[in-house]
Amino acid sequence: MSHFSSEDEALLQCMLRQLLQSVKEKITGAPSVECAEEILLHLEETDENFHNYEFVKYLRQYISSMLGSVIEEETEKCTSAQNQGEGSGYDTLVQHVTKKTRESKEYREMMHSLKNVMMVVVESLINKFEEDQMRYKEIQRKVKTEQHSSYYTDNCSDSDSSFNQSYTFMNQEQLQLLVERLDPVQPKEVRQEAMQTLCSAPPSDILNCESWANLRKHLATALSDPDSSFSDKVLKFYAKTFSSSPLNMTRELYTSLAKYLEMYFLSEDSYVPTISIGIDISNPDIIRLLKKIRLLNEYQREVPSFWIRHPEKYMEEIMESTLSLLSAKRESSHPVSLDPVYFLALVDLKAVWFKKWMHAYYSRTVVLRLLEKKYKSLIIASVEQCVSYLETCESVVDKTGRFNSFSTLHNGNKQKNFYTGKELQYIYFVHSLSLLGRLLIYKQGRRLFPIQLKNRKDLMSLTDLVVMFTRLIYCAPNCPKTLTVHSGNYSPAGLITDVLGILCERKECATECLYTNTVIEALLQPIHYLLNGTEVHLNSPETTLIHIADILARIAAADDGLSLLLYGGEKPSAMEGGSLRGAHTIVQFTKKLLDEDISVLSGSEMLPVLKGAFIFVCHQMYSTCEGLEVLLPYHLHGSISEAWKKTSLLSERIPTPVAGADCVSSASQESQSFIVLEETLLDDLLNFAATPKGLLLLQNTGTVNECVTFMFNRFTKNLQVCGFEKFGYGAIVSQVAATAAGAVALQSSGFIKALVTELWGVLECGRDDVRVTHPRSTPVDPIDRSCQKSFLALINLLSYPAVYELIGDQAIPNKPEYSLREVPTDIIDIIDRVIIVNTEAKIHSLFNYEQSHIFGLRLLNVLCCDLDTLLLLESQYKVSEVLLDAQRENTIYISETSRDFIIDGLSVERNHILVRINHVGGPTERILPPRILHKGDDPYPWPMFSSYPLPTCYLAEFPRKTDTRQDGDASKLACALNNPEKPLELIENIQRQFCEIMENKPTVMSGTNLAELMEMFVLHLSETPSECYFTSRECEADANAEIKTLSSVQQLGVKMTISYGKHLNLLRENAEDDLCHVIMHCENFLKRQQAVLRTSLRGLQGGYVGFDWFASSVFLIMMGDREKTLNFLHQFSRLLVSAFLWIPRLHSSIHLPVDTAASGIHPIYFCSAHYVEMLLKAELPLVFSAFHMSGFTSSQICQQWLTQCFWNYLDWSEICHYIAICIFLGPDYQIYMCISVFKHLQQEILQHTQTQDLQVFLKEEALHGFQVSDYFKYMENLALTYRPVLLRDMKNIRVQNT
């Protein structure tokens, strides 16, 4: 810039002026000079066009020419240093080059030259500004009125002086003169000129002037000026100020505008049309009024985003001026003119302003306080408008049930210029409905009710208001086409459904507003009429009923709403024998819909949608245990199944649409309708599997395979389960997998293959989309987080019934060679590839051998917690031998006679599993080694082994128990059993004494005392006809039955039982033969009572495929006495409790309905576990929610606990107490026992739900610290509440449910 010419100066001035013109709005909106400077300093961060300005381009080019060589030189120096290992990255390079450049001589010279040049340019620009200002004032004195308007328009352009004119800063004297010239007494030309000047001045100067009060009055007067151009300039000033000034300034302008509008509506001289005349929006007066209302509304919508930064009094002034305006009513004897709220509703139909004001607690409290103390009339007016609209709708419904109020329909393709009185009433109704709906959401808003309406004696409560809304749903018309200029749904029924839907989403709000019998009856009123054949006038029956179904589904989705529908707000026990509740009406109507037995709806195109809507309401109920119990008598599962089969056949018969057709044929539309209905019905059937008993019903329909396939298809597409389900299909998969037929359906659908393939992908292959340059991190957890989801899914899947169906009687491949591309596809492959890794070929086929094998061992550890699964794996694959061999090979040579075990992740896992599977015992009866290493010199102090027996350190000491035969309470109870009293009185007396012992001296119930008392009590019950559930003829043993050899699973179970009994010091040396005799005798005894079933399930092809843990438990209780055990079991088999304690008792039994027996689902699952889930929801809601979120079910773990009589989970003394309370007090105590266990584990369950390993915890961990006696009183309290229902259902297991 050493040769800086006049042309260069002019060019720079032009560039600088362009920059300032582009940012003039930001600068003029700044409240101070300091703020303006701050805006300019951060312009690059806030202006996306910053680098496009010519001045910025010029500066960049100039800097590049002056400093380019310096920057390049420094960059080369730093780059060479980095190549020699001295640098540390790109950021350091930039910082270094910048520092060196700023310290250079060239930089200092450039800055000096640039500063001198810019000082010259800025000084010239300032001089030019002063000349322009003087020229502007001179022109302002000479031009005429027409030129004023034209000149104002030019000032809004990008002309040379427009930027300078927008910076018309004024002092107080100038502002005072401006205020005087705006006085209404001044000539019109003077006021026009003053208004022009006002528009070009910064709003901050104007609002801070000393004469603002007078100026505000003049502006309000100017708004009423008959010259529209002049009043429009005032509005532009208002709009400019609203958008560029802080709240402390704009509030005064807003309140003045609101006050002006309030006075306008109250004035007799103002033109405000009446309701009968309507509104012509082409009328100039209406146009001007609507412009002011819209400006007011736009500010109402924007101000909530920043008023929290200012004192509350500012916000309160805005709110009060608004509510005062909306409450204004002109008092006159003439026809009543429209209130301000009509015009506000025209520009903000759904009251968005009120929604925003009510959103934050900060503003909501002020609004509600003002409504309660001063402006309650606004709420009353809104309610009265809804009442008036309802009365209008009901009064014009003709005999055909059609609404005729909107006779003249508007063509939505043309501009709407006129609103009739009826249309205005509807618009006001929509605004009122939106306002009331938002008000009811909040507690303080609901406290405004009840309210007193005009011409109504009684107060209107919240319930009355909601009932009025429901009446509007089925008597209001469809949306008038006059509202097609708006977007969205504006039909009354749709709007009310949306409002009630929002109320349903908030528990406290729904409880106060919706969860009453009055509201439910109002919703169900048209359904009652249709069921009874009573004539009912509905504008659109299908649409109305769909809206009602939507609301009912939302109510049923919440626990309190579901209880209201099922029990009418009463306790479940009070329901019996009572009147029909909402649920019964809904399911009856749904069955009629499925049968197409409602004449009003026959032939309707929307009938499939209507069916789906009401089945979904039932779906919300029967997917819960308590809902299924209420709906069970209606056999809805059968009706839905039949409807699905019928729809499936119809959809297959419809011809395929012809390709290339110009329009969609009716056949194609019909086909699509049937496909949607078919999928809806399958989904509804699938959700019966949400509960154990519902799964039994689903299997009895024969559609479980189709439902599981449907679920898998949705699962692969990542589709949402339903509108109110947040946790996916996890719980349903867990329920289905707990049964044999369910496991087969999962396999045939492809679900298991997809699961195993996904597991293999994350375990061995890794993600395909990860670049090679970004290697996977080395896992630090035994189960890496990437595999955790698949690990838990496998655990959910592999219950014992599922395991037996998937791998029973199948050998593992054990191939001599495995291809690296060979991916497992089923469970047997997983066992072969990552669990039983016993060959070099398997090891070499794994990319991540240690990680994958640890995964397999962890999975094996969980599987072996189910004793039946353990016996199956041991009998088929000899897993203990495989693990011992692996431990033997994992050693290092020390000497010819000594080898040390290598301690690594795999050997530690194997050691833990070997101890677990070789030694049975409760939490204090065995010691399991940890699976982690300790710090220090001895990281793993636990001895490893490669052959049996176990090291003694893993065997907890169990001293021989002393005989408690002489205990007084036990003797007293035994004497009572021998007294010849009346049977029922004796039983009650025995039960009472037993309860006293369990509460005070639980240790008495053990050893010989327990054995003798159980023998005597069961003998007495078996001789009492009223207590015998199974007849004696059915329970007789066949003395000549052939005693065959035991299966390998039974032999292993016998050895395990004998080992456990000897550890407990309960058995003598030759007890094994006696137990074998007992097991064989029981198998033959029960085989005579098995039905011949036609089924493909492996588990139902012969006898019971698991081990008889109950018979083994009785054998231990009887101290190994074979005769006592057999006599006890024969007598016990006549009792109802035997069906639930003795699992093999009802395997494929003739005592069960044929469909139930063929399903392979045991009563402990569809009855006991079902009621555990139901009681869990009522008694321990946090635990119930934890199960639901985890995707695991309480029924599956309960089935495992109960099947193996809590072996490995409880100490022997507690197992005896569990069996005793069920025998002495009834089979329902089995359910209370499980609930007590969950209550004991509540904190751990919640913790492990957070860590996402709840399944692993429940299956692997023993029940530490749990004692039956500690929870005995709790069980008694549960029995008082639930026993009638539970025992009744347990006795009905022989009743056909289909």
Molecular structure report:
By secondary structure, this protein is an all-alpha fold. A two-stranded antiparallel sheet has the order 1-2. It is globular and about 125 Å long. The model is unreliable at 143-167, 399-413, 480-488, 573-579 and 1037-1041 (pLDDT under 50).
- Beta-strand segment tally: 4
Strand content range: under 5%
**The biggest beta sheet, please?**
2 strands, antiparallel
User: By helix and strand content, what is the structural category?
Assistant: mainly alpha
Q: Share of helix among residues?
A: 55-70%
Q: In which order are the strands of the major sheet placed?
A: 1-2
What integer is the average pLDDT? Answer: 84
- Gyration radius, to the nearest Å? 42 Å
Uncertain spans: 143-167, 399-413, 480-488, 573-579, 1037-1041
Distance between the termini: 98 Å
What is the global morphology?
globular
How many helices? The count is: 65
